[in-house]
Amino acid sequence: MTTASAPVTVNPRDFLAIDRQLGDEERDIRDVVRAFVADKIVPNVGEWFEHATIPLELARELGAIGVLGMHLDGYGCAGASATAYGLACLELEAGDSGVRSLVSVQGSLAMYAIHRFGSEEQKLQWLPRMAAGEAIGCFGLTEPDAGSDPGTMRTRARRDGADWVLHGQKMWITNGSAADIAVVWARTDDGVRGFLVPRETRGFTTQDIHRKLSLRASVSSELLLDDVRLPASAMLPEATSLRGPLSCLNEARYGIVWGAMGAARACLEAALHYALERQAFGRPIAATQIQQAKLAQMALEVNRGTLLALHVGRMKDAGELAPEQVSMAKLGNVNAALEVARTARQILGANGITLEYPVMRHMVNLESVVTYEGTADVHALIVGGALTGIQAFR
Asked: Could you tell me the domains of the chain?
């Protein structure tokens, strides 16, 4: 004789019960970040987006909850798992891609570069302050004519006695004008090298990029280096080729794999709530087959993408994650998030274009996310190259 089991209920917010796959510490970290986003980001980010600003004091608040460089060990960093860091990125981007970008550039680009390639003196000088949000960092790789092909960079560094002299220009640099320290990559006679450029260095200036229609709650800047003189100690000693900055980008792409699903989840939740409340022809629009089909497809993409992010996170924690696998995950999850956002915008109708709802904001933000840290086209070619053994862009 068998005992009938209780019926299994489905949680619309976690349809495939992914939460059960997380450890207690991972849930705790996720919940801390989720609460921070609900309290500090969601009530304010619409206004930040509208006015194209983000309060710089947010960096210290993010440092206080331990998310800046949280996946790094020592020097004031939490030493959390890759999966826990990914969950934090998901929750941050459920608030706004610009906030997740601030954290990602700080931790996965600027701090990671110093942590991985810097001297002990450089680490001690910068990492504790950056982990606390007391110092903001940026990462200067992209140039006006060198985006997807960073090997063609024109910024150069030449020796002059014991010093280095940098000359060039960087473009689309998140945190640029807000940064206390810039990690700048330049071509030298010995290959591509990284340099730490403090904000007050003579010849180093920034100017913000205005009139953006995406990532408006984020600082995007141009870095100008006019014969910037730096001591030999400013060079990152362990980075000797383009592999240095590319490894940093791979760290940031990993965070995007998770973050995109945060934006997608926020759009799904907004669309579901709206569909249940909005009345048309005497009943909620959620009662119609066409809207239910849209919601079902959106939920599928959010749950599938979150499972993919979790799988990639477990692989990274095990030391088994290849860059090509990150490319596949970034390509799939950002494209899926864009489709979710666009479908949610349709469900909300005219209300979907206002900042009273998060959907249009997430949608236009994702148009940047699908481009930065490697465009969708480039990631498709990386995956294609791994499949065929033929590199199409070489």
From this structure: 18-131 (1.10.540.10), 137-234 (2.40.110.10), 243-388 (1.20.140.10)
